[in-house]
Write a structure and sequence with these properties.
- By secondary structure, the chain is an alpha/beta fold.
- The chain has two domains: about 150 residues, 3-Layer(aba) Sandwich (Rossmann fold); about 120 residues, Nitrogenase molybdenum iron protein domain (Rossmann fold).
- The protein has a four-stranded parallel sheet, with helices on both faces.
- Helix 6 packs antiparallel against helix 7 and helix 7 runs parallel beside helix 12.
- The longest helix is centred in the first third of the chain and has 35 residues.
- Bound molecules: zinc ion.
- The site of zinc ion has 7 residues, from loops.
Amino acid sequence: MVKKSSFDSSKNGRLALLAGILITLAGCAKVDRAKLAPSGSGKLQVVATTGPVGDAVRRIGGDRLEVEVMMGPGVDPHLYRAIPSDLRRLDAAKIIVHNGLHLEGRMAETFERLAGKKTVIALADGLVAAKDKRLLAPPEFEGHYDPHVWHDVAMWSECIGYLADELAKADPNGAENYRANAAAYSAELAALDSQVRAATATIPENARYLVTAHDAFAYFSQAYGLESVGLKGVSTEDEIAIGRMDEVVKLIVENKIPAVFVETAVAPRVVEALVEPCAAAGHTVRCDAKLELYADALGPIGSGADSYAGMIRANVRTIVGALGGNAEQLAAE
Ligand SMILES: [Zn+2]
């Protein structure tokens, strides 16, 4: 009796558990469909490509926009192709916001196709329209500008102003909101920019080199007085040129550069390969998992680098600390 009853209750327990799972799954499916539905919440549906772009849209959109970000932490935008669920989201959205300047190199045709049907905003287009003198056109990027503009906080602030203007055109009822949010956020970014400037100024002269897997930090380096040294070019898709490794090893050894940096979205072995030849030439260069930079994506939720400003602070702390400077000037939040 006892046995049977315990069997029954455990069987019932399993059935209850299974029912629970099914209900949960049904719930998830419902949530997903709701996300795709056009503005059931009364908010405008927006799809943003990368983490930094999504953060910008959330800050400027406030309560008026419902923002979904396509590429999560650790996703490489240069190589990313939209999957079917992305295409459904892009089709359902009222507004699409991407970085532009071919950062999302494999989605250009998708954006072109959608631009005829809805508002498609490329954040960096504002810099191009204003003929911003800080824009860089590296020779190997086939005449295009370097897309990594968000690493210069002041340039990103310009992009925020452009975003507010474009959102105001797409949704005139929210214009005042967007402009007020942009003004408040730009003031925050101006403070952040000065802190980054103060922190990077403490790096000793000889160590002002930022050696990374791909050339994502040219704007950062231009703004904050370093020299950016990427093994690959402006896109992670580029191959490392013949002779490039030897060239960089020589640079590291001659300048006794203390550290080189891995990126969250690129395999660490690309940069780790510098350590041995430097050691053979008599110089120990540091390269470990703690020296990880957010080149093209934000960090996971809770990492402290899950917002644009948090990502910039995390990168600056890592760079300044490893190159022998002092990052105390950076505010905690
Ligand atoms: Zn990149």
